[in-house]
Amino acid sequence: MQVTINGRPHQLTGDVSLAHAVALLTSAPAGVAAAVNGTVVRRASWDTTPLAEGDDVEVLTAVQGG
Amino acid sequence: MDDPLLIAGEKFTSRLIMGTGGAPSLDVLDRALVASGTELTTVAMRRVDPASTGSVLSILADRGIRVLPNTAGCYTATEAVRVAAMAREALGTSWVKLEVIADERTLLPDPVELLTAADRLVADGFTVLPYTNDDPVLARRLEQAGCAAVMPLGAPIGSGLGIRNPHNIELIVESAGVPVILDAGIGTASDAAIAMELGCAAVLLATSVTRARSPELMAEAMRLAVAAGRQAFLAGRVPRRHLALASSPPAG
User: Fold this and answer.
1) Is A2-61 a domain of CATH 3.10.20.30?
2) Where in chain A are the domains?
3) Could you give the angle at the alpha carbon of B93 between the alpha carbons of A17 and B99, nearest 5°?
4) What CATH number is associated with residue B160?
5) Is B243 a domain residue?
6) Looking at the predicted structure, is the pLDDT value of residue A13 above 90?
7) Cβ of B82 under 8 Å from any chain A Cβ?
8) Residue among B15, B88, B97, B230 flagged as catalytic
9) How would you classify the pairing of strands B66-69 and A8-11?
10) Active-site residue B97, yes or no?
11) What is the four-CA torsion angle of B39, A33, B97, B82, rounded to 10 degrees?
12) Which residues of chain A from 2 to 61 reach within 8 Å of chain B, CB to CB?
């Protein structure tokens, strides 16, 4: 199944949860937010949020700025 | 002197809010933040970079500095609201420095998108600190929208041009019922002092410290300048006069 994570295509097999998609990029225990197709998903729900073909996932964190 | 800064009921001893952009390394940033005495510091929200090491968040946590996420890089209200929602989820704070810019060349705020975003974020329970133009009317509209502060620019972001329109900043201060925080344009310590002398409640700056030859030294200079400017404002300056007024007794 193909999804887009932070603008790049990824193939997901087996575990298609949002938690798994985020874990491909970071293992940070805090300071990270994820949105699926523009809607923010609470961290507590990442495990139970399955992704679907073509979903657009954004994973953001805080960086130096402002 | 007990003279705390109050934003949305939260108390701060320091009136210097720092940004974190532009520092050559996290170590330099860390030392500058400590020297500045800041208690509130902005960060930007960006896509996770799996290759990055170290985190500005851990510095802020270690130093006990409250994090203020911004919506830098957003050009529309829709984008800014989305980034604010992501920041609230990632950082566990409903405070946001709202930034909606019009174009890359000037980075000036887009007033229409800014006010729209402020309306939506206030309705969604955010504590909104908008980066705004030095326009007294727009500042008033942002306050009416429920913003917890207004943050007019002194000059474009990163320009170091100082306060180009002190008269407008004074007008904003005169009528505002929320803290006025001079944001952007500070070049050196005297600019920060002038902002405070004009009656601003605080100063927000980044570039003038992070890109200075010695960020740590400049951060301390800013801390002192903000404190000095605040005290001068509270003390009340003498009126300007056209002619001399003898400071020594003329008679005797």
Assistant:
1) yes
2) 2-61
3) 100
4) 3.20.20.70
5) no
6) no
7) yes
8) B97
9) unpaired
10) yes
11) -170
12) 6-7, 25-26, 28, 30-35, 38, 40, 42-43, 58-61
Helix (H) or strand (E) holding B60: helix B56-63
Give average pLDDT by consecutive 10-residue segment, chain B, 252 residues: 93 97 93 97 93 87 96 96 96 97 95 98 98 98 98 96 97 97 97 98 97 97 98 95 90 84
**What does the alpha-carbon distance between residue B6 and residue B12 come to, in Å, rounded to a whole number?**
6
8 A C-beta contact, residue B225 and residue B195? no
Question: B41 pairs with which residues across the strands?
Answer: B18, B67
- Who contacts B187 (Cβ-Cβ below 8 Å, separation ≥6)? B159, B160, B161, B162, B208
Chain A: residue whose CA lies nearest to B17:
A66
Q: Of how many residues is chain A composed?
A: 66
Query: Which residue has tokens 């860390």?
Result: B30
Paired sense of beta strands A56-64 and B181-183, if any: unpaired
Which H or E run contains B45? strand B40-47
Q: Is B21 in Cβ contact with A60 (below 8 Å)?
A: no
User: Whole-model pTM?
Assistant: 0.93
Element (H, E) at B58: helix B56-63
Q: Domain count for chain B, please give it.
A: 1
Return d(Cα B69, Cα B135) in angstroms, integer: 24
Asked whether residue B141 is domain-assigned, the answer is yes
Domain membership of residue B30 as a residue range:
5-235
Complex ipTM more than 0.85, yes or no? yes
Quote the pLDDT of residue B131: 98
Q: What is the DSSP string of A21-40?
A: HHHTT---SSSEEEEETTEE
Distance CA B179, CA B202 (A): 8
- Tokens at A21, concatenated: 């998609």
